[in-house]
Structure formats: C-alpha cells, structure tokens
Amino acid sequence: MLPMQTMYSSDGWDSYSWGFLAQANEIEIMLHNPAVEKDPACGPLIDFIALKALKTPHRPKGNMLKNGNFEEGPYIFPNTSWGVLIPPNIEDDHSPLPGWMIESLKAVKYIDAEHFTVPEGKRAIELVAGRESAIAQIVRTQKGKVYDLMFSVGDASNSCQGSMLIEAFAGNITLRVPYESAGKGGFKRAKLRFTAVTERTRVRFLSTYYHMKSDHSGALCGPVVDDVRLVGVRYP
Fold first, then answer.
1. What digits encode the pLDDT tens for the residues 36-54?
2. Is the model's pTM score more than 0.85?
C-alpha cells in the first residue's frame, strides 16, 4: 500500500514509485483504492503510469556502495517538474532506488537535473520530511578497519531556504553536516571517518530539521544528498 496522507508538491500532483520482483514473464497490474477516506465520494486521482526495468546495481571501482550516485532509480515522466516520491519502509531487495532502503515513516524524493540542482550526474535524493525521511544501505566491512564515507549535501534550487542539517551514520559514529541554503542551488562535500565494529556496516542519512518552500505553497522540501562514496583507508 502507498500512504498518501501527505501532499508533498505544490503542483497538485505527486508522482510515486513502487518496486517489485517479477515472478513471471507476464504480470497483471491493478490499482485499488482501499477507501479509507472519511468521505466516500472522495478519492485519489491517478494519471500517467509507466513500467521500468531496473538494473541490478554493482559496486563501481573506487566505491564500496551500490548506486552511490543515485543514477539508477524510478522513471521520471517527461515534462513533470516535481520529482518522484519513493515510499517509506522499502527494503533493498525490491526498492525502486536500487541498493538503498527507505528507513523512515515518510517518503524521500528522487529528483532530476533537468528541473533541480543536482550536485553530481543527473539524479539525486531530497530528504523532504525531516527525521521521518531517511535512506540507508548495508555494506560488508572488515572489523577494525578504518573507512571514509564521503558525500555531497546541498539544496535543489527549489526555494527551500534556511539552516539545514544532515546526519550521517556509519559504525558507531555520527556526523552532523550543516548547510545554509538560499534556495538557489549549491552543495558542499563532507567526510565521515569511522572504524568498522562489525562485518556489516549500516550507512544512513537523514535530515534533522523539517523545511517548507519559501514560496508560501506549504510544500515540504529538504536537503539534497548525492555522490555518496565509501572507501577503505590504507594508512589512517
């Protein structure tokens, strides 16, 4: 089920993504309203449906994370300027954002360089619901070895202004990265150095604060995360 209690965009439409593992060569797709509205005469409007085959992510040379640049992800409809929401509680084995889990109560937004400012490449993630909006990936590590987690933090040039704060978690270490947004685009690099305490390390990102666009639309927004890299440190 897709939770749709929150309207994220100010355009009157939200695009949602959903990932699944195909069990046969032919499948049936059915959209159903469970009718939880108080007014039975009301319900969600549906338009534009697309099906995209996602590639299995691999760890590129120089990065222990899969899909760390978020280039592989849900389909974005042409001529839509509000991104695509990835719903919460999505595990990595059927995530529309390959390699990543959505570990939160609210959705995260998948954005494109055609309509937003993206730090690197053509795609990025916007954490639009404060601490209720988080992404994570579990990676194999060597206990006692030192690693560097590097990433970009910025704003999407979508009138999301204010003092932003990204929290990055790896091992037993938390890094808080402040970013002052003027809502006009930009980014900064950050690095978290940690020592692995187990053979599997969870890398996690969330936004500390809640933000709304400064255009008085009431639309939720937040900091952008992109170009995430994890590497071992040979001589710490």
1. 767 777 778 888 899 999 9
2. yes
| Cα–Cα distance for residue pair 102/84, rounded to 1 Å | 14
pLDDT tens digits for range 175-233: 999 999 999 999 999 999 999 999 999 999 999 999 999 887 888 999 999 999 999 99
Q: How far is CA 111 from CA 96, 190, 233, in A?
A: 13, 21, 31
Whether residue 5 has pLDDT greater than 70: no
Q: How many CB atoms lie within 10 A of CB 127?
A: 30
Cα dihedral 51, 57, 60, 62 in deg (nearest 10): 110
Strand-strand pairing, 134-140 and 123-126? unpaired
Query: Which residue's entry shows tokens 């978020």?
Result: 70
- Which structure tokens are listed for 51? 């099906």
User: Tokens in use for 60?
Assistant: 């590129």
SS3 of the chain: the string is CCCCCCCCCCCCCCCECCCCCCCCCCCCCCCCCCCCCCCCCCCCCCCCCCCCCCCCCCCCCCCCCCCCCCCCCCCCCCCCCCCEEECCCECHHHCCCCCCEECCCCCEEEEECCCCCCCCCCEEEECCCHHHCEEEEEEECCCCCEEEEEEEEEECCCCCEEEEEEEEEECCEEEEEEEEEECCCEEEEEEEEEECCCCEEEEEEEECCCEECCCCCCCEECCEEEEEEEEECCCC
- Return the amino acid letter for 90: I
